[in-house]
Amino acid sequence: MINRLVVPLSFHWTFWYNELCVKDVDWVMNIQKLFEVTTAAEFLEAYSKMKLPSTLPQGASYYFFKKGIRPIWEEEPNKGAGAWEMIIDIRPNHDLNLVWSDLLFSVISDGLNELLMYLCGITCNVRRGFLKIAIWTVKITPKNHGYIIQIGKILQNIQKVYGIKSIKYKIHERSSYNGIN
Protein backbone atom coordinates (compact mmCIF):
# COMPACT_ATOMS: atom_id res chain seq x y z
CA MET A 1 0.00 0.00 0.00
CA ILE A 2 1.30 3.44 -0.93
CA ASN A 3 0.84 6.17 1.63
CA ARG A 4 0.13 9.48 -0.08
CA LEU A 5 0.77 12.81 1.49
CA VAL A 6 -2.53 14.65 1.91
CA VAL A 7 -2.08 18.37 1.34
CA PRO A 8 -5.20 20.20 2.52
CA LEU A 9 -6.18 23.44 0.83
CA SER A 10 -6.59 26.55 2.99
CA PHE A 11 -10.22 26.70 1.89
CA HIS A 12 -12.58 24.14 0.44
CA TRP A 13 -13.54 24.98 -3.15
CA THR A 14 -16.23 24.12 -5.70
CA PHE A 15 -15.93 24.02 -9.49
CA TRP A 16 -19.10 25.09 -11.30
CA TYR A 17 -20.01 25.20 -15.00
CA ASN A 18 -22.75 26.55 -17.20
CA GLU A 19 -23.43 26.96 -20.89
CA LEU A 20 -25.15 29.82 -22.60
CA CYS A 21 -28.76 30.02 -21.47
CA VAL A 22 -31.63 30.48 -23.86
CA LYS A 23 -33.46 33.73 -23.21
CA ASP A 24 -36.08 33.47 -20.48
CA VAL A 25 -34.37 30.41 -18.95
CA ASP A 26 -33.43 30.86 -15.32
CA TRP A 27 -29.63 31.13 -15.26
CA VAL A 28 -29.44 29.66 -11.76
CA MET A 29 -31.18 26.49 -12.96
CA ASN A 30 -28.52 26.07 -15.67
CA ILE A 31 -25.45 26.13 -13.42
CA GLN A 32 -23.93 22.74 -12.59
CA LYS A 33 -21.70 21.81 -9.68
CA LEU A 34 -18.80 19.81 -11.13
CA PHE A 35 -16.43 19.06 -8.24
CA GLU A 36 -15.76 19.92 -4.63
CA VAL A 37 -12.10 19.92 -3.67
CA THR A 38 -10.47 20.04 -0.24
CA THR A 39 -6.94 18.77 -1.01
CA ALA A 40 -4.31 19.42 -3.64
CA ALA A 41 -4.78 15.91 -5.03
CA GLU A 42 -8.55 16.40 -5.38
CA PHE A 43 -7.93 19.71 -7.13
CA LEU A 44 -5.48 18.15 -9.60
CA GLU A 45 -7.85 15.27 -10.32
CA ALA A 46 -10.77 17.64 -10.96
CA TYR A 47 -8.63 20.01 -13.06
CA SER A 48 -7.40 17.13 -15.22
CA LYS A 49 -11.00 16.09 -16.00
CA MET A 50 -12.07 19.55 -17.17
CA LYS A 51 -11.87 20.90 -20.70
CA LEU A 52 -9.53 23.81 -21.29
CA PRO A 53 -11.30 27.19 -21.57
CA SER A 54 -10.18 27.57 -25.19
CA THR A 55 -12.19 24.44 -26.09
CA LEU A 56 -15.45 25.50 -24.43
CA PRO A 57 -18.39 26.64 -26.56
CA GLN A 58 -19.15 30.33 -26.83
CA GLY A 59 -21.25 31.40 -23.87
CA ALA A 60 -19.88 28.74 -21.50
CA SER A 61 -18.37 29.61 -18.13
CA TYR A 62 -16.28 28.00 -15.42
CA TYR A 63 -16.45 29.13 -11.81
CA PHE A 64 -14.13 28.22 -8.94
CA PHE A 65 -15.61 29.44 -5.65
CA LYS A 66 -15.12 28.87 -1.97
CA LYS A 67 -17.39 26.10 -0.76
CA GLY A 68 -20.76 27.47 0.30
CA ILE A 69 -20.57 30.45 -2.08
CA ARG A 70 -22.50 30.09 -5.31
CA PRO A 71 -21.40 32.21 -8.28
CA ILE A 72 -24.53 34.33 -8.17
CA TRP A 73 -24.44 38.12 -7.86
CA GLU A 74 -27.67 38.37 -5.92
CA GLU A 75 -26.57 36.10 -3.07
CA GLU A 76 -24.33 36.83 -0.10
CA PRO A 77 -21.41 37.40 0.09
CA ASN A 78 -21.46 38.45 -3.59
CA LYS A 79 -24.43 40.81 -3.26
CA GLY A 80 -23.16 44.37 -3.46
CA ALA A 81 -19.58 43.16 -3.95
CA GLY A 82 -17.59 43.14 -7.18
CA ALA A 83 -14.86 41.60 -9.27
CA TRP A 84 -11.56 42.42 -10.93
CA GLU A 85 -12.14 41.62 -14.60
CA MET A 86 -9.60 40.94 -17.32
CA ILE A 87 -10.66 40.92 -20.95
CA ILE A 88 -8.47 38.75 -23.16
CA ASP A 89 -8.80 38.86 -26.93
CA ILE A 90 -8.94 35.45 -28.55
CA ARG A 91 -6.13 35.48 -31.08
CA PRO A 92 -3.47 33.10 -32.37
CA ASN A 93 -0.49 32.46 -30.08
CA HIS A 94 -2.30 33.82 -27.04
CA ASP A 95 -2.64 31.09 -24.46
CA LEU A 96 -5.89 31.83 -22.70
CA ASN A 97 -5.61 28.55 -20.83
CA LEU A 98 -2.42 29.64 -19.06
CA VAL A 99 -4.04 32.77 -17.63
CA TRP A 100 -6.89 30.68 -16.18
CA SER A 101 -4.62 27.93 -14.85
CA ASP A 102 -2.12 30.43 -13.38
CA LEU A 103 -4.93 32.05 -11.39
CA LEU A 104 -6.31 28.70 -10.24
CA PHE A 105 -2.91 27.49 -9.08
CA SER A 106 -2.19 30.82 -7.36
CA VAL A 107 -5.41 30.45 -5.40
CA ILE A 108 -4.94 26.85 -4.29
CA SER A 109 -1.21 27.20 -3.56
CA ASP A 110 -1.86 30.17 -1.28
CA GLY A 111 0.01 32.40 -3.73
CA LEU A 112 -2.39 35.17 -2.76
CA ASN A 113 -1.65 34.65 0.96
CA GLU A 114 -3.86 36.76 3.23
CA LEU A 115 -5.68 38.16 0.19
CA LEU A 116 -7.63 34.88 -0.06
CA MET A 117 -9.76 36.14 2.83
CA TYR A 118 -11.16 38.82 0.50
CA LEU A 119 -11.76 36.52 -2.47
CA CYS A 120 -15.04 34.69 -3.16
CA GLY A 121 -13.97 32.94 -6.34
CA ILE A 122 -12.73 33.23 -9.91
CA THR A 123 -14.60 32.94 -13.18
CA CYS A 124 -13.74 32.22 -16.79
CA ASN A 125 -16.36 33.27 -19.36
CA VAL A 126 -16.02 32.41 -23.06
CA ARG A 127 -17.57 35.11 -25.22
CA ARG A 128 -17.53 35.96 -28.93
CA GLY A 129 -13.93 36.97 -29.70
CA PHE A 130 -12.78 37.27 -26.10
CA LEU A 131 -12.41 35.55 -22.77
CA LYS A 132 -13.31 37.29 -19.51
CA ILE A 133 -11.52 36.12 -16.39
CA ALA A 134 -12.57 37.68 -13.10
CA ILE A 135 -11.67 37.48 -9.44
CA TRP A 136 -14.80 38.02 -7.37
CA THR A 137 -14.14 39.78 -4.08
CA VAL A 138 -16.11 40.51 -0.94
CA LYS A 139 -17.76 43.92 -0.52
CA ILE A 140 -15.30 46.80 -0.30
CA THR A 141 -15.18 48.45 3.11
CA PRO A 142 -12.82 51.06 4.54
CA LYS A 143 -11.03 48.23 6.41
CA ASN A 144 -10.47 45.94 3.40
CA HIS A 145 -10.16 48.47 0.57
CA GLY A 146 -6.35 48.17 0.52
CA TYR A 147 -6.52 44.39 0.23
CA ILE A 148 -8.95 44.56 -2.69
CA ILE A 149 -6.59 47.02 -4.42
CA GLN A 150 -3.66 44.60 -3.79
CA ILE A 151 -5.57 41.87 -5.64
CA GLY A 152 -5.88 44.26 -8.59
CA LYS A 153 -2.16 45.00 -8.49
CA ILE A 154 -1.39 41.28 -8.69
CA LEU A 155 -3.64 41.11 -11.74
CA GLN A 156 -1.71 44.04 -13.25
CA ASN A 157 1.40 41.83 -13.12
CA ILE A 158 -0.50 39.06 -14.90
CA GLN A 159 -1.70 41.65 -17.40
CA LYS A 160 1.91 42.59 -18.22
CA VAL A 161 3.06 38.97 -18.58
CA TYR A 162 0.24 37.97 -20.91
CA GLY A 163 -0.40 41.25 -22.73
CA ILE A 164 -3.98 41.47 -21.54
CA LYS A 165 -5.89 44.40 -23.02
CA SER A 166 -7.88 45.65 -20.04
CA ILE A 167 -8.40 45.19 -16.35
CA LYS A 168 -11.01 46.90 -14.21
CA TYR A 169 -12.98 46.49 -11.00
CA LYS A 170 -16.69 46.13 -11.57
CA ILE A 171 -19.39 46.21 -8.91
CA HIS A 172 -21.86 43.37 -9.50
CA GLU A 173 -24.64 45.91 -9.79
CA ARG A 174 -23.24 46.73 -13.24
CA SER A 175 -21.44 49.99 -12.49
CA SER A 176 -17.67 49.82 -12.76
CA TYR A 177 -14.47 51.28 -11.42
CA ASN A 178 -11.72 51.47 -14.03
CA GLY A 179 -8.09 51.30 -13.05
CA ILE A 180 -6.15 50.85 -9.88
CA ASN A 181 -5.30 53.83 -7.68
Layout of strands and helices, then pairs:
Layout: E1 8-18, H1 27-30, E2 32-39, H2 40-49, E3 61-66, E4 82-89, H3 96-108, E5 119-127, E6 130-137, H4 145-162, E7 166-171, E8 176-178
Antiparallel strand pairs: 1-2, 1-3, 3-5, 4-6, 4-7, 5-6, 7-8
Mind explaining what this structure looks like?
The chain has a single domain, classed as RNA Cap, Translation Initiation Factor Eif4e, CATH 3.30.760. It has four helices and eight strands. It has helices spanning 27-30, 40-49, 96-108, 145-162, and strands spanning 8-18, 32-39, 61-66, 82-89, 119-127, 130-137, 166-171, 176-178. An eight-stranded antiparallel sheet has the order 2-1-3-5-6-4-7-8. The relative contact order is 0.17. The model is unreliable at 175-181 (pLDDT under 50).
What's the short story on this structure?
The protein has 181 residues and is an alpha+beta fold. It has helices at residues 27-30, 40-49, 96-108, 145-162, and strands at residues 8-18, 32-39, 61-66, 82-89, 119-127, 130-137, 166-171, 176-178.
Structural class: alpha+beta
CATH topology: RNA Cap, Translation Initiation Factor Eif4e
> CATH-wise, what's the superfamily?
RNA Cap, Translation Initiation Factor Eif4e
Helical amount: 10-25%
Largest sheet: 8 strands, antiparallel
Number of helical stretches of at least 4 residues: 4
Strand order, biggest sheet?
Answer: 2-1-3-5-6-4-7-8
CATH class: Alpha Beta
The helix/strand series, from N terminus to C terminus, equals EHEHEEHEEHEE
Strand element count? 8
State the distance separating the first and last CA atoms.
55 Å
Estimate the mean pLDDT confidence: 87
> How large is the share of residues in beta strands?
25-35%
The shape, in one word, is globular
User: Compute the gyration radius: what is it?
Assistant: 16 Å
- Low-pLDDT stretches are 175-181
Number of domains: 1
Q: Please state the second-level CATH architecture.
A: 2-Layer Sandwich
